[in-house]
Amino acid sequence: MLLYIDGTVRNESRTRELADYLAGKISDNVEYLRLCEKNILPMDTQTLSMREKLCNKKDFENPYFVYAKQFVKADTIILAAPYWDLSFPSIVKAYLENICVVGLTFSYSSEGMPVGNCRAKKLYYVTTAGGKIINESYGYGYTADLAKGMFGIKEVQLIKAENLDIIGSDVNGIMLEAKKEIDKLF
Ligand SMILES: Cc1cc2nc3c(=O)[nH]c(=O)nc-3n(C[C@H](O)[C@H](O)[C@H](O)COP(=O)(O)O)c2cc1C
Question: pLDDT truncated to tens, each residue of the chain (186 aa)?
């Protein structure tokens, strides 16, 4: 199963256009999750306390864990996340916070190191930017570290299109080039 996590916000999203194109190359068996359409919230005092109690009991039947369980069983993952304020929209962070669940997506080794429990071999991070991505660490880099270091997903691939909002940019040309880069991966 391909899990396509759509962290885009705009209806006419270029990031989603690229991610759709990529998804079409990977699999017909897709679970599509548009974060903005779900009630995905940042952790608050009550949710954190509830989650800790359930994790301690290893009771993962609560609906709260539906996204973490979906993430664990995916074979391949696409995360579509536009470049916002040097990283990505906050809904993406809220989602990642929701799926970092001890006992589900990862466990701790006896030395206290996270060990990933996720099945996916590869995660594609798809982004587009109005200008140049001046530092990849905050969006792609952070997600790649999380995927490799916590979830156990060995390969993370960045797909990007930059300078889309620069006056005079050939937007169609840039998008076409990004799609050609995707073609080369298959
Ligand atoms: C809230 C917001 C923050 C943004 N921050 C940046 C930024 O820090 N650097 C940049 O180059 N472009 C920035 N942009 C422009 C977007 O990266 C660009 O328009 C991108 O293609 C949007 O993706 P989308 O078409 O998938 O919505 C921002 C746009 C929005 C709406």
Answer: 999 999 999 999 999 999 999 999 999 999 999 999 998 999 999 999 999 999 999 999 999 999 999 999 999 999 999 999 999 999 999 999 999 999 999 999 999 999 999 999 999 999 999 999 999 999 999 999 999 999 999 999 999 999 999 999 999 999 999 999 999 999
State the closest ligand 1 atom to the C-alpha of 83, by its place in the atom list counted from 1: 17
- For residue 156, the cross-strand partners are 123
The overall pTM is greater than 0.90: yes
DSSP 65: G
Structure tokens at 164: 């889309």
Pocket test for ligand 1, best of 35, 84, 128 (most atoms within 8 A of CB): 84
Pocket test for ligand 1, best of 16, 83, 88, 171 (most atoms within 8 A of CB): 83
- Give the start-to-end residue ranges of the domains of the chain: 2-184
Is domain 2-184 given the CATH code 3.40.50.360 in the classification? Answer: yes
Sheet of 30-34: strand order equals: 30-34, 2-6, 76-80, 122-128, 155-161
185, two tokens: 């991966």
Task: For residue 164, give the amino acid letter.
Answer: L
| Structure-token match 């797909």, residue found | 159
